[in-house]
Amino acid sequence: MKKNTFNRRDFLKTTLASAVSVSPLMSLLGSLQTLEAATISGDYKALVVVLLEGGNDAFNMIVPKSDEAYDRYKAVRAGIELAKNGLLSLNVPQTYDDGIIYGMHPNMSEMQKLYNDQNLAIIANVGTLVEPVTKDDVEKQRKPLPQQLYAHNTQRALWMSAGNATAVTPTGWAARAGDQFYPAPNQFFNITVAGANHMQSGGIADAYPFRKETVSTDTITTYGFGPESGGGIVGKVYADLVIQDSTGENKLLRTFAGKRKNEIDLVDKLISSGFTDKVDDFTAFSGIVNPHPTGTPVEQQLQLVAKLLKKKDNFPGSPKRQIFFVNHHGWDTHSGQIATHGTLTKALSQSLGAFYETLTQLGLHNNVTTLTISDFGRSLTPNDSGTDHGWGGHAFVMGGAVKGGDIYGKMPQIKKDSPDATSNRVIPTTSVEQYLSPIVKWFGATEDELDKIFPNRAAFQNNGFWFMKS
């Protein structure tokens, strides 16, 4: 069917299998607003934020290989330590030098290649901070500490809010970025393929959700997409509600009907712009086997992001800036860490490798920067076969605009009674704000806008590192 004759009724009757598809239920429930064209100049840029939910043990991702440093690592991590001869070799960092040679987890060969090809950087020991602190500051309680250290929900929310670690702010940093870049709301600035999250919440425009699923006539009928859907109890109720017009007596129903009609109009715009035209799977993702059962596999989420990026020019308003959210579940490794963490790291490495390969094929590898965040790091000492909740941990940044093949920040000493840890939990030396600010500056934010997006960043110095190309 020709695009210019593909109307709403056709959409309701047609299956959009194997396409970048909008979930009808999410389209119904989302709070969608009128889009305005971006006024941002320059090339398109996007951020893809990958949450390692549960708290990643990054100290078993990047491991010291030098003899004495490895022996100290092995002693403090006894029972969950990685074999020295299995660690993947990393090129000598471009600028970082603490006298120690580091290796990478044996399941991370794709990320090893990205690092050695200078397309991936390691940001050392990042975590939530109110202000810089030392071990002495923490143990003598001389400086304020983040709210509810070691608690999943709070620490994850503090990472995502990046406002002030003494308390979770009502808005997330990506939402505040959207308010700065698009004061006239753009619904497609923040996009999530992993559901609601605090990072993209609280702004002028809500994050728009996409899911990889087939949109079928039965699905549309069941959930009652629009007044033409008909059939089914829910469909009939919805049809009766949505036809309420501005002359209706019930204010709630008038508001509901108006919002639903706006949503249908937005879907019409997506269809008329060619957004829902078929996009085939990318071959780079074929063959990835992720047996971890929690949540939607990360490779599926990243492939969906790649499909959305391929259709970026078909978004209404053609936004020049977008932030995508991906959630890689399952990193709370209290037991069975060797096997579970190995599976997770392999899935992450393969998926990031496939994603970067796909971005290169699309010609977007210099325009898209991918970064990891997590609830927190893990304890240095194991808890039987796993680890407890920690504080600081390493993060990864990937893209053609990254000064890769290097380590930024300060690597902690991984040993018993480490001077860089309290109660065997590493104290961050790089704050969330220090980590995110260079990325969002590359994204296009001015210094004034960075202060609004990260209101507590003045508490930290840049520490002299800048890992993004201009």
Describe the structure.
The protein is α/β, with parallel strands linked by helices and 470 residues long. The chain folds into two domains: 3-30 and 213-272, no CATH class; 45-210 and 296-459, Alkaline Phosphatase, subunit A, CATH 3.40.720. It is built from 14 helices and 16 strands. The chain has helices spanning 8-13, 24-29, 67-76, 109-116, 135-139, 152-161, 173-181, 217-223, 233-242, 251-272, 298-310, 337-362, 432-443, 447-453; strands at residues 45-52, 62-64, 88-89, 102-104, 120-127, 190-192, 208-209, 321-328, 368-374, 378-383, 386-389, 393-398, 407-408, 421-422, 425-426, 430-431. Strands 1, 5, 6, 7, 8, 9, 12, 13 and 16 form a nine-stranded mixed sheet that branches. Strand 14 and strand 15 (425-426) form a beta hairpin. Helix 4 (109-116) packs across helix 12 (337-362), helix 7 (173-181) runs antiparallel to helix 14 and helix 11 (298-310) packs parallel to helix 12 (337-362).
Task: Give a brief description.
The protein is of the alpha/beta class.
Protein topology:
Blueprint (H helix, E strand, L loop, with lengths): L7 H6 L10 H6 L15 E8 L9 E3 L2 H10 L11 E2 L12 E3 L4 H8 L3 E8 L7 H5 L12 H10 L11 H9 L8 E3 L15 E2 L7 H7 L9 H10 L8 H22 L25 H13 L10 E8 L8 H26 L5 E7 L3 E6 L2 E4 L3 E6 L8 E2 L12 E2 L2 E2 L3 E2 H12 L3 H7 L17
Parallel strand pairs: 1-8, 1-9, 5-13, 5-16, 6-7, 6-8
Antiparallel strand pairs: 2-4, 3-4, 5-12, 9-12, 10-11, 14-15
Helix pairs in contact: 4-12, 7-14, 8-9, 11-12
